[in-house]
Amino acid sequence: MENIEAMLCAYIEGDLDAAGRAQIEKHLQDHPQHRKLIQELTAMRELVRGLPRVKAPMELGESLRGKVERSMLLGDTGDTPQQSARGNRWPQVFAIAAVFLLCASLCLVLYKALGPTMKPAVFTEGVAAKLSVAPPAYLMTSPSVPTTRESLAANISTDTRQIEPGSPLIAPAGPAASRPSTASQQQPAVVTAQFNVEAIRQRLLNSGIDIVGANASSPVLMVVSSTDLPATNAQVTQFLNDSSGISWKKVPVNVETKSIPATLPSAKVAGQMSASADGKFNWDRESGAPTTQPASDVYVAKGLTPQRTDVLRQSLAVQQNGAEVQVFLQPAGALATTQPSVAMSLKDADSIHLGSAALPATGPSEAVNSGGDLAAPTTLPANESSVAQPLVASGGNRPSAGANGIFVANSAAAISDNSQILQPVNTVIVIQSTSAAASTPGSAPQLLPTVRLPAEENSPPATQPSPSTQP
Amino acid sequence: MSSLSGAQYEAELPPKSEAQGAARGRDRETALFLKARAGDRSAYGQVVLLYQDRLFNALLRMLGETEEARELTQEAFTRGLEKIETFRGESSPYTWIFRIGMNLAISSLRRSQRARTFSLDGTSRGGNGMPQYDDQAAALVDRVASNTDEQPPQVAERRERHQMVLDALSRLDAEYRAVLVMRDVEGFDYQQMADVLGLPLGTLKSRLFRARLALRDELAPYLSDKTKPK
Questions:
Q1: Cβ–Cβ of A64/B138 closer than 8 Å?
Q2: Where are the domains of chain B?
Q3: Nearest-CB residue to B212 (from A44, A61, A80)
Q4: What is the pLDDT of residues B51-62, one digit of tens each?
Q5: Which residues contact A415 (CB under 8 A, 6 or more apart)?
Q6: Whether pLDDT at A166 is above 60
Q7: SS in 3 state form for A282-333?
Q8: Cβ neighbours of residue A339 closer than 8 Å, sequence gap 6 or more
Q9: The CATH number of B16-227 is which of 3.30.420.40, 1.10.3720.10, 3.20.20.80, 1.10.1740.10?
């Protein structure tokens, strides 16, 4: 079939040899209809051949010649398309590399800029040993083991468990010990409990004290660890003095020390208690004379905006004559007394001690048996709910009074002499020493002896018994 | 002057009697092309000048659209420059360039899968049936054509005939269109066509015969009108 078509095609084109042409002629004589078809096909050929020719547009030649000239001037040696494509990818590669470099630079800048903000306070071994309340695991670190942002974030995220009413403020040692904290592994005698801020908040709520911050972004707690307490104190004081609109009060921990029995006493009773190094409570509220050297200082400020707090934090983070200063901002919302109504409810409170500051020494067994080592009843009496009680939370072991306090939040009344509440308390600044060397007598506040928890929870503590447990 | 010279590309194909001159022209074109392959870009510029009209016309008959024919003509020359090192002189330079352009056109037609309405000079028709000129060159062609000695009825009839052929071409498959354009528009011989399409000669002739049959079927109404006794 193909051969016949090829022969017919050649016949139409006039390219067929004589023999073939004769064969076709003979066939056409026998089939006149086919002759007509051949005539039509020949006519088709002439019709197409008769089509006019069109010249290329003027710009086509110009464009092509320009392209060739450019190629000539640029010395293009006529790369294959594949080679050209490869060559054209270089700008893309450079662009991608530039983007990566830019991102890396940006990350570096952000890291440098936000580093102090993100950097948690470092509770060194020495400091931790002086605390009667073990700080959160994510605050615990060893000088030889740097605290990383990742570990901080991981620990914070794991510390958001739901708190049931009446849950202990100090979590049992078990969960804490199970945390993957290098510091806790290295300091098993100290990190035996987790400081549960959320439990404290819940307990305050049970007492009719709403501590849910109106401004969740406000930093409510600033813990400053410094090897040079006087210098840091001076810096904080200077900042608060120089900043208008901030009312603040410095609350030395040793002055506010008080003894909390197994059940929470009234504010008046609590105010008459004090703690001393030997476990006796000799605080005279009237005179306010400290019986122990201040181990840390607490500033309760109102009107200290988050922005100013950040400025203060950054200024504190600057090295002071080579001394180490580290600042930790408690995550916003963990503890806040920012609502005016709440502050009003706290106005008669002497203080709210959250932490180990100036607590009487109590045995660990009692602490454990008291269901979280909170020296306060789970639920306050109804008639006392409007009068905030001094709530004291401490760690599993409270070896001595006057140890470095961690969290102390004063009531609004403690800020203003006339109890006029203009602004809620929104920031509590705790300055604590990070080394015993900085607290040597005569040069720095005296740190009281500290006692570590034994590895076993129920083993006898190497501390002096508290009055409540002493016969 | 060689009929293959783009600037002097005339309306008629070179007659057989000029075959010898055409052969000399091809030799000159081949030498020019070899110079271009050796890196002489000015020689390639001359090649472009030589072939641009012819290639554009062929692609226009293939595609039916001036703009697309222009783009593909430019693309064919650009690719020719990129691949010029692969030219081995086994075929004529124009056949080599034409193959690039034809492959581009066939690919474009296969992609578009649409029927195209051809026009005589690459112009599109407006709503009133009047041609809408795409460029000055097409307008010039039309004006020159209108200045012949033909009487208006003859001009109109010729234009109508050409338009019918172009319309019929536009309805053919790309493969049929290609062989008709190469044979009847470009005047390729069978070997050139076989080189471009990569087909055996017998298959090529068979396809050409079928393409003519298909065109006849498309033009049957027109032919019947013309053959009707008036």
A1: no
A2: 16-227
A3: A44
A4: 999 999 999 999
A5: A247, A248, A249, A300, A301, A302, A425
A6: no
A7: CCCCCCCCCCCCCCEEEEEEECCCHHHHHHHHHHHHCCECCECEEEEECCCC
A8: A210, A212, A213, A214, A424
A9: 1.10.1740.10
Give the position of tokens 């007598």: A441
- Give A16 or A289, the one with higher predicted confidence: A16
Q: What percent of chain A has pLDDT over 90?
A: 0
Distance between CA atoms of B90 and B36, rounded to whole angstroms?
A: 16
pTM of the model: 0.40
Q: Do A61 and B48 touch (CB under 8 A)?
A: yes
CB-closest option in B48, B122, B166 to A65: B48
Say yes or no: A64 contacts chain B, CB-CB below 8 A.
yes
Helix (H, G, I), strand (E, B) or coil at A337: strand
What per-residue confidence (pLDDT) applies to A74?
Answer: 64
Residue B15 is classified by DSSP as P
Report the C-alpha gap between A272 and A293 in whole angstroms: 18
Dihedral angle, C-alpha A106, A111, A114, A117, nearest 10 °: 160
- List Cα–Cα distances, A464 to A171, A368, A372, A399, A461, in angstroms: 23, 17, 20, 7, 8
Q: Name the residue among A309, A392, A362 with its Cα closest to residue A470.
A: A362
A101 and A203 Cβ atoms separated by less than 8 Å = no
- DSSP characters for A43-101? HHHHHHHTSPP-PPPHHHHHHHHHHHHHHHHTT-----HHHHHHHHHHHHHHHHHHHHH
With an 8 Å Cβ cutoff, are A56 and B70 in contact? yes
Is the per-residue pLDDT at A45 higher than 90? no
> A222-262: per-residue pLDDT in tens?
667 777 777 778 888 888 888 777 777 665 444 333 333 33
Residue A18 backbone phi and psi in degrees, to 5 = -65, -40
Q: Report CB contact under 8 Å: A80, B77.
A: no
DSSP letter string, A243-269: STT-EEEEEETTTT-----SS---HHH
| Selected residue with higher pLDDT from A224 and A409 | A224
C-alpha span between B213 and B117 (Å, rounded): 20
CB proximity A214 to B under 8 Å: no
Tokens of A140: 């615990």
